[in-house]
Design the sequence.
């Protein structure tokens, strides 16, 4: 079975996100108001082939833990759908 | 009177002093222009220097293009004034749509600071005016996002109109068409990834950048008279 | 690593009462090993710190050396080993940020970074991850902040597999009159916090607060807090410009960076150095997160912050300068005459802590920890690698030792400021001694200028020049930098090994024409509670002191990094020295590591005594780490330094390389692959002579017509000189030992590092 | 009203994605199989204050078009929820 996956990687809460903060600071001068709490992370999309949804999910989790994030500073959120 | 070159400084720019020094070495008169200024003052050419305007956050040039000075730069360019973007300056010019295309991450996914062998591909720009087409120049590159990208129609247009100004002899970053520098239709707005100011002294290993800066000063004088 | 019972008792004695929780937290960070040097201070005192040109020695944020003509150079080195082991990119990035703040806090514009790096072997995936992450972190931060990285080291050794070493040296240039110290003065003056908001990051980074006197709750909390920080080079870039601008306008009487121990350190040190007190209002500190406790605010190590001491009269002007550079500035403290550091919550609010500032800064315990010579040392020294079987093919071994570090340094902007005459890849970096605002370039304009400010300058840069009057006349024209460490040597003999490093670093700067003028060091050692480690540290310091005295090179700063261990195993003792050299007149670029077809190759310097003990060959080709080190004749070395610099500056050579790791063989090999020219050398008896390591030697390439003059100069200096062969041809030939094609050696040299890293595409 | 927004920025189809390609190439050696079509982009999160969902939506779209993406090479996908 094939699944399509979106992994969103963000810095963990409490860790400063200079990129997000800089984007946020610049918005008013660009004419955008009312935007707060900007966090800038990564979005990684791919397709995965696995025997079951559970198998796919556990491979993706492992991938996030060991490769796509450094859990010391980053969290991953996974969204999976049919491929 | 020596041609006057305004060097725009954004927060995070870092090559402004180097460019100013090289411009002066080439016989021009350089002044620094702060990004928040809405006017350029009395100048004959503008350089957007290298560096990391606004930390390159989001995308190189994405925030810088909204600076007040960019309106003045666009007006100056529209009047035919010579505008050159070096490295980060090139990225800002593309974000500001003063030049087509975009600069993506290098193919090898690393920052690259090294000499590059270039070939002059067109003499129809303010930076290569009177420089022999085919001439080889050795000028350093220093970038992470220098991989020039555009849609096929734009590429065909650039090639067809002779607007590819400089090409890499040995493409370091995956740039389409080995493009190191391009210009607008008028030839007065030029963007290039290599740093001419870094090839401005024999002690630095090359003076080839002075060929380009001298051409720019020539164009600047021509505009003024 | 919290406070011990004795330390807690000492605090109680100093205060005459029990400290409260906040006070205890402040002592815990200030008396940590990192901030107080409590294990190493007793030994560091033995280093020679005085010399002619020393304007500021150890103890301040950076050492400062007079370069003549009203110009000075600030230099400092620091480690960021532990953060880089857990988050390589950010650990290395924040290491660069931290050391740069030490430089511009002195009033110097940072103009160079060097990064001596040590990792485990790249056969291990974790070491590859760390190495790649560290290099991109240095690249990402250093390039963006706008300071060129001009050299360093890249070493792979199993000793560092669990604990990489990420040291960063930074160097800055200043007009002498901009020199400013991290001192508070003037009762009633204000302490202004500049830069980033304060968050819960890096709390207790210098010490784990948990052990003594804390509730279980706090422990639990502390464990959850991220100790790794994310660097913001853009903020730091603006901080650099704002701070230098403030100093040029004489708007700050003192300035101090916030590093380890955060606000506690910056406020107590500035007060203590100035002999004053300070009241700090924690409620005024801009926070990144709500609900932070005062002890968190006072010990947070959030990056990119500085503390400036300003007069109330200048405050508006200070705020205006900061506003221009888009740097946040907030009054958080007031200088008092009490000598006490008082933490308050609101100026009229409760006093949360009240301690003598000097006790935080200077009364940390001083430990004379037990020392023992390692029991296995004699055995390891007796295990001499010359007893190993000779290599079947010296050529293959030579090629295996040639590793081009350019994959690393091509990721670093090493050219910014147009100063870099010898780029990374040479024996030492050589930079023109200029910087924006120091030897002013005649630019005009509004960038950096602020309408409404009194200075009357058209630009911040012009103001710097006008204010400084430093036109550069009489100043040295260039500076050289080299960093050197060698854990193999130092594990066999920390004292002698360290002396050899000082000698090597000095010779490296001589190879680009400079005379060594000052040294900084980063002492990377294991756990100081192991008596063997303390012995190594003590020995290394003695070796450094001895060599520096003999060569008349003062030690102007350093950093001690202890507890470099993993799974109970200490790293090899790895002192790293950073050498600063000056060149009075820079006329031509030095010839560099090169050879020219047709030239003679001369081996100049010490003869005999080279050994394979602790050598690159033994380690790389035989995985062997025993033996004894070659002797060092400091008197000869001193003569050689002058001779080499003179030859280089006279323009008589077409190539030069010091003989270091891998001996004469590797020196010749590197000269060949860098220039694409082969050589034929004779008279080298065996692999022992080819790869044996000894100090005080250089290989020079000189045109036949000029060889006579070079030989005469060596004779006049009383330095041996042997003609070992000639450059030219397509092969590297050492008669009877090596015969390899230039093409093969070059390809292997060029691709070795990316291959080991598993980089798919080898960038050119 | 406040809305929470996720903007996913990916390179447009047809534009080469060296980062995605590099991740994909290195996965098999790390022991992950069956992963294809990797795209590496950005995930930008923030909160926005607006009078209505439509107003928020149109401000976010404008933000994407003029600032968060470079339309020459990038596309944005927006997911909005209550703040
Ligand atoms: N991490 C690094 N950063 C910058 N330059 C480096 C790095 N590693 C090595 N280099 C450069 O590569 C060259 C060779 O380094 P190395 O072999 O350690 O020198 P040597 O042994 O001659 O002192 C030097 O010029 C050094 O500055
Ligand atoms: Mg050397």
Sequence:
């Amino acid at each position: 079975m094939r699944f399509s996956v979106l992994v969103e990687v963000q810095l963990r809460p409490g860790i400063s996100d200079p990129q997000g903060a800089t984007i946020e600071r610049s918005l008013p001068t660009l004419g955008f108001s009312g935007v707060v709490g900007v966090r800038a992370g990564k979005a990684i999309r791919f397709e995965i082939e696995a025997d079951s949804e559970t198998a796919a999910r556990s491979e993706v989790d492992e991938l996030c833990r060991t490769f796509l994030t450094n859990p010391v500073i980053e969290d991953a959120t996974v969204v999976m759908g049919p491929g | 009177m020596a041609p006057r070159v305004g060097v725009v400084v954004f927060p995070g720019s870092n090559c402004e002093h180097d460019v100013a020094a090289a411009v002066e070495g080439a016989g021009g008169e350089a002044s620094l222009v702060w990004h928040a200024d809405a006017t350029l003052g009395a100048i004959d050419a503008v350089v957007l220097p290298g560096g990391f305007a606004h930390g390159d956050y989001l995308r190189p040039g994405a925030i810088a293009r909204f600076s007040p000075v960019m309106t003045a730069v666009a007006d100056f360019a529209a009047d035919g004034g010579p505008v050159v973007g070096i490295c980060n300056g090139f990225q800002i010019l593309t974000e500001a749509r003063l030049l087509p295309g975009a600069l993506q991450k290098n193919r090898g996914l690393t920052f690259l600071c090294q000499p590059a062998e270039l070939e002059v591909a067109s003499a129809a720009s303010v930076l290569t005016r009177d420089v022999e087409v085919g001439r080889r120049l050795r000028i350093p590159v220093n970038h992470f996002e220098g991989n020039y990208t555009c849609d096929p129609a734009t590429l065909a247009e650039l090639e067809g109109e002779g607007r590819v100004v400089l090409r890499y002899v040995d493409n370091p970053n995956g740039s389409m068409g080995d493009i190191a520098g391009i210009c607008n239709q008028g030839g007065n707005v030029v963007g290039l990834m290599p740093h001419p100011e870094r090839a401005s002294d024999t002690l630095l290993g090359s003076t080839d950048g002075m060929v380009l800066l001298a051409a720019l000063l020539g164009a600047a004088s021509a505009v003024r008279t | 690593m919290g406070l011990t019972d004795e330390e807690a008792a000492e605090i109680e004695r100093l205060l005459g009462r029990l400290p409260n929780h906040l006070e205890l937290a402040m002592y815990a960070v200030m008396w940590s090993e990192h901030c107080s040097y409590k294990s190493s201070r007793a030994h560091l005192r033995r280093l020679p710190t005085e010399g002619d040109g020393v304007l500021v020695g150890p103890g301040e944020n950076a050492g400062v050396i007079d370069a003549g003509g009203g110009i000075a150079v600030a230099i400092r080195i620091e480690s960021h080993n532990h953060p880089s082991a857990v988050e390589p990119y950010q650990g290395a990035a924040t290491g660069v940020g931290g050391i740069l703040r030490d430089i511009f806090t002195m009033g110097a514009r940072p103009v160079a970074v060097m990064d001596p790096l040590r990792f485990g072997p790249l056969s291990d995936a974790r070491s590859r991850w760390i190495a790649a992450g560290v290099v991109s972190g240095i690249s990402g931060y250093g390039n963006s902040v706008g300071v060129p990285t001009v050299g360093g080291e890249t070493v792979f050794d199993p000793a560092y597999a669990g604990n990489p070493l990420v040291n960063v040296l930074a160097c800055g240039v200043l007009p002498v009159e901009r020199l400013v110290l991290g001192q508070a003065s003037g009762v009633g003056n204000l302490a202004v916090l500049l830069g980033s908001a304060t968050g819960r990051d890096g709390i207790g980074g210098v010490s784990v607060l948990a052990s003594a006197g804390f509730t279980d709750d706090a422990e639990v909390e502390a464990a959850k807090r991220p100790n790794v920080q994310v660097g913001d080079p853009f903020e730091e870039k603006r901080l650099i410009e704002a701070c230098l601008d403030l100093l040029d306008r004489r708007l700050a009487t003192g300035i101090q960076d916030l590093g380890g121990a955060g606000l506690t350190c910056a406020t107590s040190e500035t007060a203590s150095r100035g002999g004053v007190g300070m009241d700090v209002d924690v409620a005024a500190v801009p926070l990144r997160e709500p609900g932070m406790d005062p002890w968190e605010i006072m010990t947070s190590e959030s990056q990119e912050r500085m503390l400036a001491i300003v007069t109330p009269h200048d405050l508006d002007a200070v705020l205006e300068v900061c506003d221009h550079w888009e740097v946040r500035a907030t009054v958080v403290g007031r200088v008092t005459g009490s000598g006490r550091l008082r933490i308050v919550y609101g100026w009229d609010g409760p006093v949360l802590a009240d301690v003598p500032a000097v006790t935080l800064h200077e009364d940390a315990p001083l430990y004379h920890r037990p020392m023992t010579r390692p029991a296995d040392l004699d055995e390891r020294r007796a295990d001499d690698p010359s007893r190993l079987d000779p290599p079947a093919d010296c050529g293959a071994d030579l090629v295996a030792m040639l590793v081009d570090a350019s994959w690393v340094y091509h990721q670093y902007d090493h050219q910014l400021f147009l100063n870099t005459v010898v780029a990374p890849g040479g024996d030492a970096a050589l930079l023109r001694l200029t910087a924006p605002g120091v030897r002013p370039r005649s630019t005009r304009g509004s960038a950096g200028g602020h309408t409404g400010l009194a200075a009357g300058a058209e630009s911040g840069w012009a103001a710097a020049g006008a204010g400084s009057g430093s036109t550069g006349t009489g100043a040295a024209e260039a500076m050289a930098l080299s960093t050197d460490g060698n854990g193999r040597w130092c594990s066999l003999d920390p004292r002698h090994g360290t002396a050899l490093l000082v000698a090597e670093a000095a010779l490296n700067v001589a190879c680009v024409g400079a005379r060594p003028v000052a040294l900084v060091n980063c002492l990377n050692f294991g756990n100081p509670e192991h008596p063997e480690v303390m012995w190594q540290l003590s020995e290394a310091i003695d070796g450094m002191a001895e060599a520096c005295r003999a060569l008349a090179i003062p030690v102007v700063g350093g950093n001690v990094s202890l507890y470099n261990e993993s799974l109970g195993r200490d790293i090899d003792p790895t002192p790293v020295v950073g050498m600063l050299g000056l060149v009075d007149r820079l006329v031509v670029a030095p010839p560099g590591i090169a050879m020219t077809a047709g030239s003679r190759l001369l081996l100049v310097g010490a003869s005999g005594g080279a050994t394979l003990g602790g050598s690159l060959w033994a380690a790389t080709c035989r995985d062997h780490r025993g033996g004894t080190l070659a002797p060092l004749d400091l008197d000869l070395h001193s003569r050689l330094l002058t001779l080499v610099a003179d030859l280089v500056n006279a323009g008589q050579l077409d190539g030069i390389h010091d003989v270091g790791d891998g001996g004469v063989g590797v020196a010749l090999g590197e000269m060949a692959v860098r220039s694409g020219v082969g050589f034929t050398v004779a008279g080298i008896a065996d692999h022992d002579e080819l790869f044996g390591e000894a100090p005080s030697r250089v290989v020079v390439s000189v045109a036949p017509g000029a060889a006579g003059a070079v030989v005469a100069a060596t004779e006049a200096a009383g330095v041996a000189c042997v003609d070992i062969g000639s450059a030219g041809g397509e092969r590297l030939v050492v008669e009877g030992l090596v015969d390899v094609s230039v093409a093969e050696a070059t390809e292997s040299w060029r691709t070795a590092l990316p291959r080991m890293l598993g980089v798919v595409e080898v960038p050119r």
User: Anything to note?
Assistant: Helices of chain A lie at 18-26, 53-68. The pocket of adenosine-5'-diphosphate (ligand 1) is lined by residues C 115, 117, 149, 151-154, 405, 408-409, 424-427, 484, 508, 660-661 (CB under 6 Å). Chain A touches chain D through 34 residues (CB under 8 Å). The two ends of chain A are 8 Å apart (CA to CA).
